[in-house]
Specification:
By secondary structure, the chain is an alpha+beta fold. The protein contains 3 helices and 3 strands, in the order ααββαβ. A 3-stranded antiparallel beta sheet has the order 1-2-3, covered by helices on one side. Strand 1 and strand 2 form a beta hairpin. The radius of gyration is 27 Å and the shape is rod-shaped.
Length: 162
């Protein structure tokens, strides 16, 4: 009878060694998605705040044209204050688009500031870069892009001075 008794002492160890890497990779992907989601929220909030800064400082005279250079300077100063040493890795694009003309006062142009923030997220868990990283994958970064459009705040010049 003892001739047919099979020894199974190492079976659990072998099964664990086959399943454990797959299980850990799944856990790492879930945690990495949480990391990316967190940084996406930061990028969206930064984009909103930078657009708000651009909308408020965009023009200095009533019904005047928006000044993109002033917007960029103020936004870059805010970017440095908010992100500190990491500010160099973050790209902020500022664009002004005309959206219409006031029919009552032709000199007043409606303009929007469009702010694009490209925020590189360092992937922190092993094995996730080959699927989640942006090119080049060997760097281990995923670029998150956030875009916000906001109307430029302008005061109206008197409509009597047409």
């Amino acid at each position: 009878m003892t001739l047919f008794h099979k020894r199974r002492e190492g079976q659990i160890t072998v099964e664990l060694m086959l399943i454990l890497p797959v299980l850990m990779l799944i856990v790492f992907f879930i945690l990495e998605y949480g990391n990316i989601a967190y940084h996406t929220i930061i990028a969206n909030h930064a984009s909103y705040e930078f657009a708000r800064i651009g909308a408020l400082v965009g023009t200095n005279k009533p019904s005047g044209k928006a000044n993109t250079g002033t917007m960029r300077n103020k936004i870059n100063a805010a970017k440095t204050k908010v992100f500190g040493a990491d500010a160099q890795r973050i790209t902020v694009g500022v664009k002004v688009q005309q959206t219409g003309i006031d029919p009552m006062y032709k000199k007043h142009r409606h303009e929007d500031v469009v702010v694009t923030v490209v925020y590189p997220v360092r992937l922190i868990f092993p094995g996730t870069s080959w699927l989640l990283a942006s090119e080049p994958k060997r760097n281990g970064f995923r670029k998150v892009t956030a875009v916000t459009r906001m109307p430029v705040e302008k005061t109206y010049a008197s409509s009597d001075s047409k």
